[in-house]
Amino acid sequence: MEMVSHHIHGDDPPGPDSGGDGSARSQGAAPLPRVSVVLPVHNGAAYLDAAIGSILGQTFRDFELICVDDGSTDETPSILRRHAQADGRVRIITNRPNKGLPGALNTGFAAARGMLHTWTSDDNIARPHMLARLVAALDADPGVAIAHADFSVIDANGEVIGFQKMGPAADLLLGNRIGAAFLYRAEVTRALSGYDEALFGIEDYDFWLRAARRFYFVKLDEDLYLYRRHEASLTDRRALRIHRLGSQVMRRELARVPSRTLRARALVEHGLASRLDPRLDMLVRGLILSPGLARGRITAILRHFVHHLVRALTRRTG
Q1: Which residues, at least 6 apart from 85, have a Cβ–Cβ distance to it below 8 Å?
Q2: Burial class (CB in 10 A: 0-12, 13-18, 19+), 289
Q3: Can the peptide bond before residue 168 be classed as cis, meaning omega within 30 degrees of 0?
Q4: What tens digit of pLDDT does each residue of 238-249 get?
């Protein structure tokens, strides 16, 4: 387990989380759950049973599962009712009309009672010991607010097709290093006022970037989650929009970075990162700030320019 500081902007270092370790209990009532898991879903019936089952099957049992039905018109509502009737830890909230993913997340966390928060998707699967390992990481150090881990990628049939090694959080400016398996204290939710509902598709990356200004992260070198890639997945359907939103968020964030070297490196990394959004201005600005970053990457830079030139000419002649 690797302890890393989030301190990437030069802001004042954070203090220990004042939100507690999840041991709070209501007085004169049933104990509050330590962990609140939010599962937003919109027409996600295809994989929903497996997603819910992976949470209910966790070795760590002290949690509530808040399922936010975000205006579904398929079999989602009946699936959720069946699980809620079978397990008292399952709660259902219905959004009418549909709010979109970040809005559904905010709805769920507004109702959360646990002092530790996480969320999962209707098409992904948590490994049985995910919560246990992440809770233990936060319990081990009250000064850490966010724990995250590696994950595997699966296809539509559940077959593993890849592996994603995450972190450290110190490299967040270079890309989303937190990934899909994470747990954070409720204080983080309150401090950040939840997810930005205008950033549908990159709400998680924006959330981590804002969190990194104020909180410490810890990285577990363990595979704790199965992230599903399939034709109907959110990121595939809205890829271009997500890439463009991502570049907007990075421009905002890099304006806060005092280090010329770090700013240049991030500009070049993000300038080369997208096959859909050219980001040529970011790439050029990064190379002007630090021409040495081109060393050893000339081929990649030329390919990037040629790729987007061909795309532009094809659209124009098409």
Answers
A1: none
A2: middle
A3: yes
A4: 677 887 888 889
Q: Which helix (H) or strand (E) holds 182?
A: strand 181-185
Residues in contact with 203: Cβ distance below 8 Å, sequence separation at least 6, in sequence order:
101, 102, 105, 195, 196, 197
Query: Using an 8 Å Cβ cutoff, are 286 and 293 in contact?
Result: yes
Structure pTM? 0.83
What are the C-alpha distances in Å from 146 to residues 172, 185, 223, 281? Answer: 14, 7, 17, 33
Asked if residues 120 and 57 have their Cβ atoms less than 8 Å apart, the reply is no
What pLDDT is recorded for position 28? 59
Q: Say whether the peptide bond before residue 128 is cis (omega within 30 degrees of 0).
A: no
Q: Which of 34-38, 114-118, 162-166, 258-262 has the lowest mean pLDDT?
A: 258-262
pLDDT at 180 over 60: yes
Q: How far is CA 270 from CA 164, 174, 176, 199, 286, in A?
A: 18, 7, 11, 18, 10
10 Å CB burial of residue 228 (0-12, 13-18, 19+) is: buried
By the 8 A CB rule, do 246 and 202 touch? yes
* Mean pLDDT over each residue of the chain, to the nearest integer: 88
Q: Which residues pair with 154 in a beta bridge?
A: 160, 228
Across the strands, what pairs with 92?
67
User: What are the distances in angstroms from CA 123 to CA 1, 49, 96, 226, 234?
Assistant: 28, 9, 22, 9, 10
Place of tokens 């070049």: 268
Is-contact 106 195, C-beta < 8 A? yes
Looking only at the bridges linking them, the beta strands covering 146-154 and 90-95 are unpaired
Six-digit token string for 10: 């030069």
pLDDT band at 78 (very low <50, low <70, confident <90, very high): very high
Q: Which two tokens stand for residue 142?
A: 């009250």
